[in-house]
Each structure stands twice: as C-alpha cells, then as structure tokens.
Write a structure and sequence with these properties.
The longest helix is centred in the C-terminal third of the chain and has 18 residues, at about 180-195. The protein has helices at about 50-55, 80-90, 105-115, 120-135, 150-160, 180-195, 210; strands at about 5-20, 20-35, 40-45, 65-70, 75, 90-95, 170, 200-205, 215-220, 225-230. It is about 35% helix and about 30% strand. Strands 6-7-8-3-9-10 form a six-stranded mixed β-sheet, sandwiched between helices. It contains seven helices and ten strands. It has a single domain, classed as 3-Layer(aba) Sandwich (Rossmann fold). It starts with 5 loop residues before the first strand and ends in a 7-residue tail after the last strand. The chain is of the alpha/beta class and about 240 residues long. The structure holds adenosine-5'-triphosphate and magnesium ion. Adenosine-5'-triphosphate binds near residues 19, 47, 49, 51 and 52. Magnesium ion binds near residues 50 and 51.
C-alpha cells in the first residue's frame, strides 16, 4: 500500500508557548515525512511535544518556524478559509476524549462533516450508516454518546474522522482513555482501515506496544526527534 510519494512533510518545525514573560519550548526543530498509505506512530514521554506536533501538522495551530506541506500545499501560506477547507477535505482527527457532540446520535455525529461539506441529507445518512457498519456499530447508530461504551464512542469518532474520505488521519492518544483490550481493538480497527482504504495514519501514543504496530515509529523527546525506527513487529498488531 505504501507508495513513494510524501503526502505530508514537516521541515524544521519550532514552537514555543508564551507563558507571561516565559517562553516554553515545545518543539525545537522537528522534520519528518509521511508517505501515502503509511501508518506512523509518534511515541514519547509526557510533555515531549507529541500533541503540539499533531496540532501543527493538522493545521489546528501554527509553528513559530518551519514548513508544513500537505498533499503539495504549503499550509502556512494558506488563508484561514482555504486551510479550513483543506482540513475538512483532507484530514480526519481522532482525540483521546472522543469529542463527540453529546446531544447527537452516533449517526448524526458521523453525518455532520458531510452536512458541513454540503452533501445532501439522504446521501450523508447512507454514507454515515455504511461507515458505522464498517467500524462495527450497525446496531448502535441511534445511541447518543452517553449510551455508548468508551470503545464504541471512539469507533464513532473514527467513523466521523473517516467519513469525508480524508487522505490523512491524525489521532492523539486514541486509546488513552480505554482499557487495554478495547485499546487494542481500536488499534486493530485503525490498521484495518489503513490497509483497506490506504489512508495515511499518524497516531500519537505513549504505549510502546501500540507504537510498534506502525510502519515507522517517530521517537520524540524534549521537543526533538531522537530517532525514526522501523517497526520490529513486522507491521502486525
Ligand atoms: N497551551 C500551552 N501553553 C503553554 N505550554 C504548553 C501548552 N501546551 C503544551 N505546553 C507545553 O509544551 C510541552 C509539550 O506539550 P505537549 O502537549 O505537546 O506534550 P505531549 O507529548 O502531548 O504530552 P502528553 O503525553 O502528556 O499528552 C510541555 O512542556 C507542555 O507543558
Ligand atoms: Mg498530548
């Protein structure tokens, strides 16, 4: 599934947070690339800059320095509107705390990005049903988030992230709020989707076993990449 084309490139990204008079360095010059269809994990201790990196490459925040290219677009040179459109059409986000809308059913949560993108209601519903079936929730479509288990909520979040058929899926500790067994099921689901749909996945984790399910593991510490390693487990969960 891996082709040679770099879908995402990060060049020498730096980011510090301002805390009053203090500058807290979070990333101190980070470069890597993700190829089409690749499954990458970003692995490192708490505070090493993983979430910061994910937010920057997803266009949710801007670096102080550096360059980010997504599918040929230099996202730091794009207007807010264009960047929002790129995020909506090319990037799917999955978060640790699911971030589902509590008043909407699973089906409505998954439909929402399509509705925002202007897809007609009937088609949006059909596609959302298909996606929920793919993640194994065909019998839970009309449940609201509080009526679902943590693992089920994360499946809904993954279905929502994938519904627009994004080229890149960015996941920040997607298993961080789940028990080990459910976490593994979510990892396996992401691996399956990566293999079947060829989407590029970049998954942040501080779990070494999960990190090792990737094609490549980006080891990050104190805002710097220490190493980019090939997975010793032969790419199998
Ligand atoms: N909004 C912010 N304001 C100030 N400092 C911040 C902010 N967000 C993060 N930081 C600091 O930047 C550094 C990197 O934070 P980041 O959230 O990227 O780490 P992380 O690797 O995701 O950690 P964790 O595994 O705990 O989620 C940390 O030292 C953190 O304290
Ligand atoms: Mg984090």
């Amino acid at each position: 599934m891996i082709s040679m084309k770099a879908l995402l490139e990060a060049h020498d990204i730096k980011k510090a947070y301002r805390m009053g008079k203090l500058l807290v360095p979070a990333l101190r010059g980070v470069s890597f690339e993700a190829k089409e269809g690749e499954f990458l994990t970003i692995f490192g201790p708490s505070g090493s800059g993983k979430s910061t990196l994910l937010h920057l490459i997803g266009g949710l925040d801007r670096p102080d320095e550096g360059e980010i290219i997504i599918d040929g677009f230099n996202i730091l040179e794009m207007s807010g509107d264009k960047l929002a459109e790129l995020r909506l059409t090319k990037i799917g986000f999955v978060f640790q705390f699911f971030n589902l809308l509590p008043r909407l059913t699973a089906l409505r949560n998954v439909e929402l990005p399509l509705t925002i993108a202007g897809v007609p209601e009937k088609e949006a519903m059909e596609r959302a049903k298909e996606m929920l079936t793919l993640v194994g929730l065909e019998t839970r479509m009309n449940h609201k988030p509080t009526e679902l288990s943590g693992g089920e909520q994360q499946r809904v979040a993954i279905a929502r992230a994938l519904i627009n058929n994004p080229k890149i899926v960015l996941a920040d500790e997607p298993t961080g709020n789940l028990d080990t067994k459910t976490g593994w099921e979510i990892v396996q689901l992401m691996k399956k989707l990566n293999e079947e749909k060829g989407q590029t996945f970049i998954v942040v984790t501080h779990d070494p076993q999960i990190a090792e399910t990737a094609d490549h593991i980006i080891h990050i510490k104190d805002g710097l990449i220490e190493a980019i390693k090939e997975a010793p487990r032969g790419n199998k969960p």
